[in-house]
Write a structure and sequence with these properties.
- By secondary structure, the protein is of the alpha+beta class.
- Among the domains are: 170 residues, L,D-transpeptidase catalytic domain-like, CATH 2.40.440; 94 residues, no CATH class.
- 28% of the residues lie in helices and 12% in strands.
- A five-stranded mixed β-sheet has the order 3-2-1-10-5, with helices on both faces. A five-stranded mixed β-sheet has the order 4-9-8-7-6, with helices on one face.
- Helix 6 packs across helix 7 and helix 7 crosses helix 9.
- Pfam families: YkuD.
Length: 430
């Protein structure tokens, strides 16, 4: 009886520790041996890759994208596949403590032992949180995964079909001799425009540190060598040997700049010019037109035109229907957020919100309301893009939907129509 109790307790403890990892009592499932689609194999061959060449993974929270990069015959990496993240939890920013439901950000290493072919989340691999940087800075957590099942509690969750392909990329690379692959997890694509948008965020110093590794990969298309010293990330430091260095030790000085360092400095000059232009552009946004007196059809038309111009607008057409003022119960709020809805609490959208026009002090005499729709308002002039900013951003490959890189500004609710006027939707019988 005591033996049965001990076995049961052991099973329950294992279940509690599983977290995102999950497990299965089944033998190795054929799903872990699923081969890549032929169209991907053909694409790899066209790019000068083999099925067993090394890989690297990049993750972007705000864009909701996971990219798989593979090494080509010339030693540089090229993106071979991009997947929309099904769910990730938390908000933009790093993971701090176990239980905060934050998906990690940083540079992580995945080895064969971190692959889980028996995951109850279809397939999964542990990204390696906490790494040396996380541990030396007191950050805690475990079992942070990329897995299937589209359900997240601090992990990056994909669909089963997506994770099967990602798993196959890693499996084949390990079988080809790669001993570990790098996972780079970022809050967003670190362009000059995005960095300017988040320059006042409390996480900005941390993101600026990550950006050095991001930039080095953009320049070389080779995963940077990552070390931790002085409790911070350092990249391609040739004075640090393969055995590494204590994460809290002083960073060794780097000698004369090598060609890569010179390229990086040149890249940074271009970035600073574009960053400065982005700051000025954000402060010169044209005011939004008033929505007073517009029909819903006209609002949708204006929304569509703004989207076509590339302006930062909501992904859904606006509506004149007033939103409920009732506040949600805290217990009813879903703590799991998707990448397309998560935005940092400190961020203020740079695009102006739609403002309702003030009501006149004295209401005009009631008049007969026509059912004819008024003409669409003239389009608001849009600031022209800065050439320096455009040049810098064009140099950065964007593997996702450009529109998805922008957070959704919140549209102000319109003022109720004056009592003397008959609402247009009532005139139309709505």
């Amino acid at each position: 009886m005591k033996l049965k109790t001990a076995i049961l307790a052991s099973i329950m403890a294992s279940a509690l520790l599983a977290g995102c990892q999950g497990s299965s009592i089944d033998d190795l499932s054929p799903r872990a041996e699923k081969q890549l689609p032929q169209k991907i194999v053909a694409k790899m061959k066209a790019k000068g890759m083999t099925t067993t060449s090394p890989i690297m993974v990049r993750i972007f929270k705000e864009e909701g994208a996971l990219e798989v990069w593979k090494r080509k015959d010339n030693g540089r990496y090229d993106m071979i596949a991009s997947y929309g993240i099904c769910k990730w939890s938390g908000k933009l920013g790093p993971k701090y403590i176990e239980g905060d439901r934050q998906a990690p950000e940083g540079f992580y290493t995945v080895r064969p032992a971190q692959m889980n072919p028996k995951s109850s989340y279809y397939l999964s691999f542990n990204i390696g949180f906490p790494n040396a940087y996380d541990r030396v800075n007191g950050r805690t957590g475990q079992h942070l995964m990329v897995h299937g099942a589209c359900s997240s509690s601090g992990c990056y969750s994909m669909t089963d079909e997506q994770v099967a392909e990602i798993y196959a990329f890693a499996r084949d690379a390990f079988r080809g001799g790669q001993t570990a692959f790098q996972v780079q997890a970022f809050p967003f694509r670190m362009t000059a425009a995005n960095m300017a948008r988040y320059r006042n965020d409390p996480n900005y110093p941390f993101w600026k540190m990550l950006k050095e590794g991001y930039d080095l990969f953009e320049i070389t298309k080779v995963p940077p060598k990552v070390d931790v010293c002085e409790k911070r990330y350092v990249f391609n430091n040739t004075a640090i040997g393969p055995e590494g260095i204590a994460p809290n030790a002083a960073c060794p000085a780097v000698g004369e700049p090598d060609p890569l360092r010179m390229s990086y400095m040149s890249y940074q000059k271009t970035f600073e010019t574009a960053f400065s232009a982005a700051q000025k552009k954000s402060s010169k946004q044209a005011p939004a037109p008033s929505i007073a007196g517009l029909t819903e059809a006209q609002l949708v038309s204006a929304w569509s035109a703004a989207r076509a111009r590339g302006e930062k607008v909501s992904r859904e057409p606006p509506s004149l229907t007033p939103a409920s003022t009732e506040k949600p119960n805290a217990l009813d709020i879903d703590p799991v957020m998707t990448a397309k809805t998560a935005t940092p609490t400190s961020f203020q959208p740079v695009a102006p919100t739609m403002q309702a026009a003030p009501q006149p002090a004295t209401a005009p005499a009631p008049q007969e309301v026509s059912t004819a729709l008024p003409a669409a308002p003239a389009a608001t002039p849009v600031p022209q893009p800065n050439p320096a900013l455009q040049a810098a951003n064009d140099a950065v490959p964007s593997g996702g939907d450009p529109a998805s890189a922008n957070p959704e500004p919140v549209m102000a609710q319109p003022v109720e129509p004056a009592p003397e006027k008959k609402a247009w939707w009532k005139v139309l019988g709505r």
